[in-house]
Amino acid sequence: MQKTLSIACAALFLGLTSCSKSFDLDAPLFDKTETQTAASVAYIKTGDFDLAKSISPLTVTLEGTTISEFTAQERYVYLSKPADQDVTVTVALATTEASIASFTKTLTTNPGYKVAPEGYAKLSTTTVTIPKGQTKSSAAITISVGDKYAEISKANAAAEYYVIPVQVSTVSGSSSVGVSQDYGTYFIPVKKSYQNISYYTRDPQGTALTSADITYDVSSELSWGTSTYSKDHLYDGDPSDEWYSAYSDDNAWITGMLASGTKKFTALLFKGTDGKTNAFTELEIFTTQDGTNWVSQGVLSTSYLNRESSAVVRFINPVEAKGIKIQALNPTRMGLFGIGELTFYAEN
After folding, report:
1. Which residues lie closer than 8 Å to 30 by C-beta, 6 or more apart?
2. pTM of the model as a whole
């Protein structure tokens, strides 16, 4: 009986240690070579059971000239092993591109992350204390928007990607504690989307441009029997006479390009769209100043177009441009993509 009980206890002990292994908060999070110089290291992470050194991107939106703020983040500083003295840790926001290299190299694709410039974010404190015998700082560090956040975010009317690196700078109070090489910096990525377009329930503002002012082009044209639903139907004055993209076109687009110079575009007028744009769920609208480089002005759902025979899309802030591109997104294969009439409007 005693032998059976001992075996059961041993099995229970092994089971408990096995289950708790993934939550071993004292496990060092640094290169093995670093143990030669520090018995314990300081590092930053979200919480007790989260060993990640970054989070999913926070999303903010620049709509016209109004910028939203990212949610303030609370982080603690930890030690891989407790020290026999109080440990004071100094933290800072890094501002060099080199400081985010270890973050960007982990990405499968990099949309263009840059280090957040000075003033984009701020820390609630730059020093925290980890009491002797403990592994967690007694207070958290809060990372929130900085004094120049709005200025920096509004400076570029386009989508942007920033990384806020929160870095352990120095450790004092115990000679046995160093800074973790791999986990000494915590990364907070922020994605800024730019939304300068919206549906508008009033008549479009500005002057309507004709096919003499602007050249239309499309990604494809549907041929059905003896009929071709060509791009000419976009400006022939008859909303019931549509342009359709080809069935096989999963990347349908339309462009309107000025022959010379630029104009301040104010709106787009769609006609003959009810039930005809259901092959795609969204539209993204771009502008260009040189005919080569395109800047997104935002994304809209096609559900409104599918319900309406006429719809106005306005630029919240009119955009000086040489041309406009309407890109269909997220093909559903549930129908065609078509528009009866498309008219561009501009101030000048």
Report:
1. 38, 41, 43, 80, 180, 181, 182, 183
2. 0.74
